[in-house]
Amino acid sequence: MPAAGPGRVRGPAAVEKDVWSDYSHILVKRQGNVRSLVFVRDTGQEVVETSLNLSRPYEMIMPYARFMFATYLFQAKQQDVLLVGLGGGAMVHFYRHYDPQVHVEVVEIDPVVVDIADRFFQVRSEKNVHVVTGDGLQYIRDTKTRFDVIYMDAFLKPSRQTDATGASLRQKTIEFYKDLRGKIAPGGVAAINLNVYSGTPDDLALIRGVFPQVYVFRAPGGNDIVIGSSAESRVEVAVLRQRAAELDRRFKATFAFPELVNGLARQGGAPK
């Protein structure tokens, strides 16, 4: 199941679908021109995973999703990317609109989410997008492909098999992160969405134990987007700012890449 972005659907919203899968209780809600994919926890808390403007699905309404594209600051020319966790497919829409030549492989464990993404969010296997229903962690272990970018955005309903945020305990091992690093092409990076909680420092220490260079971007709403790189040397902030300006000129996206750089934290956690 994809990552649960922060927030709730506010105000009156029509429920377009209410379904239980083997993994979660899922709602599709619509408020005006915005459609949202919502996961309902056992407590009744509704957590918005994806919100899309149906007229501009590439807009990246969810702040954490914008910060995932900090990958472009380190790998500007992408050809093959892997998304572990589909949700409503907002990131797929970004690639389709802004960088359509990129081959996007998506792995989603919940077939109900795959169906919802197709029917309500127009994300399916077509052209350069390939959606696979399966276990993303096992997929990383088994694949022979090396990707320019791998996005880890996979969460389950919190249980004894996950941490408090729903991240699988199978992901929280040195062995997994070594597998992840091994499936990244030279010059490529991994982007890991961490929903911040008391164990986040331990998660960061684990990632830093595998990747020589780690950059933490603090997204509004309680997400750390962690970029792991195998590069020998660290990219200076001034260089990242220059690259961000170039990306703004290149994409003319609905968000500003320099704002992503502003969210960068120091290696020890203090904001820059």
> What series of H and E elements makes up the topology?
EEEEHEHEHEHEHEHEEHHE
CATH topology name of the largest domain, in short, is: Rossmann fold
Q: Would you identify the CATH H-level superfamily of the largest domain?
A: Vaccinia Virus protein VP39
The strand line-up of the biggest sheet is: 7-6-5-8-9-11-10-12
What fraction of residues sit in β-strands? Answer: 25-35%
Q: Supply the helix-strand structural class.
A: alpha/beta
Describe the 3D structure.
- With 272 residues, the protein is α/β, with parallel strands linked by helices.
- The chain folds into two domains: 14-53, no CATH class; 63-265, Vaccinia Virus protein VP39 (Rossmann fold, 3-Layer(aba) Sandwich), CATH 3.40.50.150.
- Helices cover 26% and strands 29% of the residues.
- The chain has helices at 63-68, 90-98, 111-121, 136-142, 174-182, 200-208, 237-251, 257-262, and strands at 14-20, 25-31, 34-40, 46-53, 80-84, 103-108, 129-133, 147-152, 184-195, 213-219, 223-229, 264-265.
- The strands form two sheets. It has an eight-stranded mixed sheet with strand order 7-6-5-8-9-11-10-12, with helices on both faces. Strands 1-2-3-4 form a four-stranded antiparallel sheet, with helices on one face.
- α2 (90-98) links the parallel β5 and β6.
- It is globular, with a radius of gyration of 17 Å.
- The two termini are 33 Å apart.
